[in-house]
Amino acid sequence: MDGTIGVILSGGQSRRMGRDKAGVMLAGRTLLDRMAAELAPLFGEVYVSVDRPGRYPGYRELADLRPGQGPLAGLEAAFLRTGAEAVFLAAVDLPFAGASLAARILAEAGAADACVIRRRSGEAEPLFALYRRGCLEPLTACLNEGRRAVKALLDRVDCRWLEEDDLPELDLERALWNVNTGAELCRAAEAAGEK
């Protein structure tokens, strides 16, 4: 999609993991390297959203304008620091989320401000999703109000909900498996075929 960039959210404080999630190794590559490799074929530019510059040499970094304010701050910086018309956000701690799922989200977005997967449980998956520039004003308002949850933004924009049942060919349990703790990393390593 022209004018769309990929932005990898680098994982914030990683308190539950106890170390920088982006640098965690899985199947011989860091989580950051895995996600960057998946997004690169789809987007002309792939950036890493960081709270402070200089964290990931060799990657194009987008430093938050509001460090410590979470994913919405990363999305705000992506729009304000680039000329992108749309941003595909991808959390670094989704080691099995790949290009096929991202491409499906792009294809299904239509003209909506955002395109987000909604699970059968009703839970949204806003950290592997597409956001258009029309989100900038409402997301800035959310941040100014101290509302940091992405759900606050989704309540204010035209969101194309991509229902889990619309994606029967994709294994969403695996693709959207979030790795936040050492125990979850061990399970992900087993799923990736590591001992």
Describe the structure.
- The chain has 195 residues and is of the alpha/beta class.
- It has one domain: Spore Coat Polysaccharide Biosynthesis Protein SpsA, Chain A.
- The protein is 30% helix and 23% strand.
- The chain is built from seven helices and nine strands.
- The strands form two sheets. It has a seven-stranded mixed sheet.
- The chain is globular, with a radius of gyration of 16 Å.
Query: Mean of residue pLDDT?
Result: 90
The largest beta-sheet arranges its strands as: 5-4-1-6-8-7-9
Biggest sheet statistics: 7 strands, mixed
Shape: globular
SSE series: EEEHEEHEHEEHHEHH
Strand content: 15-25%
CATH architecture: Alpha-Beta Complex
SS-derived structural category: alpha/beta
Helicity range = 25-40%
CATH topology: Spore Coat Polysaccharide Biosynthesis Protein SpsA, Chain A
Distance between the termini: 39 Å
Text of the CATH class: Alpha Beta
Structure annotation, total helices: 7
Low-confidence stretches: none
CATH superfamily: Spore Coat Polysaccharide Biosynthesis Protein SpsA, Chain A
Number of domains: 1
Strand runs, count? 9
Q: How large is the radius of gyration?
A: 16 Å
